[in-house]
């Protein structure tokens, strides 16, 4: 992880097991990139999953998705709906991607 992401590493290290999870939507987006040759390497992604629980996208999330304003970034819309359905915070360094989602809580841990 580059120095740019050191604040993220610090925040993650301070979390207790179970405090942080990854949405199946985020995992799908990252896995797609990995399969296309972008970081992380597949073995790094698997190690991450061994340490961070994966949260399935369920009916509640699908219903929340159907109510969101449309934007081209469907992964972002799916992730926002998933977070809203679980009443959790989205951790992102792309805050603008989620700025128009009513009621969504976001935090940027890279600062």
From TrEMBL:
Lineage: Bacteria, Pseudomonadati, Pseudomonadota, Alphaproteobacteria, Sphingomonadales
Keywords: Endonuclease, Hydrolase, Magnesium, Metal-binding, Nuclease, Toxin-antitoxin system
Enzyme Commission number(s) of this protein: 3.1.-.-
Pfam families, sorted: PIN (PF01850)
Cofactors: Mg(2+)
GO MF terms held by the record: endonuclease activity; hydrolase activity; metal ion binding
Name under which the protein is recorded: tRNA(fMet)-specific endonuclease VapC
Signal peptide positions on this chain: none
Family per similarity comment: Belongs to the PINc/VapC protein family.
Gene3D superfamilies membership: 5'-nuclease
Annotated coiled-coil segments of the chain: none
Organism of this sequence: Sphingopyxis panaciterrulae
SUPFAM superfamilies (alphabetical): PIN domain-like
InterPro entries: PIN-like_dom_sf, PIN_dom, Type_II_TA_system_RNase
Domain PIN intervals: 15-103
């Amino acid at each position: 992880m580059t120095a740019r992401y050191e604040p993220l590493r610090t925040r993650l290290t301070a979390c207790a097991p179970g405090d942080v999870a990854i949405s199946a939507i985020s995992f799908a987006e990252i896995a797609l990139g990995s399969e296309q040759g972008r970081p992380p390497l597949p073995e790094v992604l698997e190690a991450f999953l061994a340490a961070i629980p994966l949260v399935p996208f369920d009916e509640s999330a699908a219903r929340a998705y159907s109510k969101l304003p449309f934007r081209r970034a469907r992964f972002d819309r799916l992730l926002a709906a998933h977070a809203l359905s679980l009443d959790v915070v989205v951790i992102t360094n792309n805050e603008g991607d989620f700025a128009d989602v009513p009621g969504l809580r976001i935090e940027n841990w890279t600062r």
